[in-house]
Structure prediction request, 422 residues.
Amino acid sequence: MKALTIQIGIFGKTNIGKSSLMNFITNQNTSIVSDIEGTTTDVVQKQMELNPLGPITLFDTAGIDDKSNLGKARVEKTKKAFDKCDVILLMCGFNEFGAFEESFVKEAKVRNTPLIVIVSKTDLQNPNKEFLEKLKMYSTYILQFSNVDSNRDIFLDDLKKILLEILSDNYIENYLALRNIIKKDDTVILVMPIDLGAPRGKIIMPQVQTLRHILDLNACSYIVQDTEYETALENLKKTPALVITDSQAVKTIATKTPENIKLTTFSIIYAADKCDLVQMAKGAAKINCLKDDDKILIAEACTHHASKDDIGRVKIPTWIREYTKKDLIVKYVSGQDYPQDLLDYTLIIHCGACTLNRKGMLARLNKAVQANVAITNYGVAISVFAGVIEKVLEVFPDALATYRRELKRCKRSLTLSRYQYS
Ligand code: SF4
Prediction:
């Protein structure tokens, strides 16, 4: 699945050789190469195995200086691709690195995204020494690209070496939330109800990933549906170190879980792994302080056909109105349509974002934080509605402390504003 691959974007001026680089790396004619400016009209993607890194997704983007009629839309798409990149490959010409390229360096810095400068078309002319020295101001990593077949292995070896160095520090392993909660030989019960919402014959992504992480930690998983949960507790000789449940069953499972057993949800683990659980917990506190006419944005990262009891379109809007007893205005966005302007909203409730990578979800979260708009996700919000948020956040003390602090703060300001207007 794309969200689990390392996402690498190729950026630079039109006609600088981005499509040639994409084809060179993938060894296929994935992108159309032409001398005509703006030939890449959209973001072209290609997945490949780049061992030992594993699966990667390469994005060949439209030149952001594209001045053609469709240029504006292309530039927007290119900017969105920037948000989700784990690594940026910024292409420049020999001896050409000006304000345009500097703007990319700046954007990468803002997003804390590693950037590799690629000097293009070095088969036509070699960059001079002073120029290569100057590039070191912008990135520690500089590669030269010439579109000559015999150079492919050398180029790929150099690229992989750099990627391994860049990604070893900040890629997936660092975000393994369970690492601080369970240890070797612990037993973890996973509660996965197979209800009408479950995809036929499949297990959903947050559950698959959690299972994989438990295996990585050499702990033991015991997987049951909610209907077999009590039997599972009776069967186990050893007290489980943790129970992880689907959010929609959390209320029932919480009532059946003895006090001494830790409980959390797949959504919470997923939020901790691929986003920022502390911010999501802070956003969840806001649910308790909503007022009539507050605007709520339900944001989904993919487009899908909503069922009659769709979680985002039907259940969450119903539950939040029942829980708050407020007359709320609920709006929806899905897929790529995350609004640039969030100021109108009081709270964003985002889906689990299984189709986005960590960078993509963090970009959305940061836009909300910068706009000073509270943000949480479906699973965390459901635990608030179910009255078990404190229990399920216990295994993440920072998130729990932030939730409590924010709850206190927003209740106090709600009381103050009532007092002022009474
Ligand atoms: S979690 Fe979000 S991205 Fe994943 S299927 Fe649901 S709506 Fe789509």
About this structure: The chain is about 40% helix and 15% strand. The two ends are 54 Å apart (CA to CA).
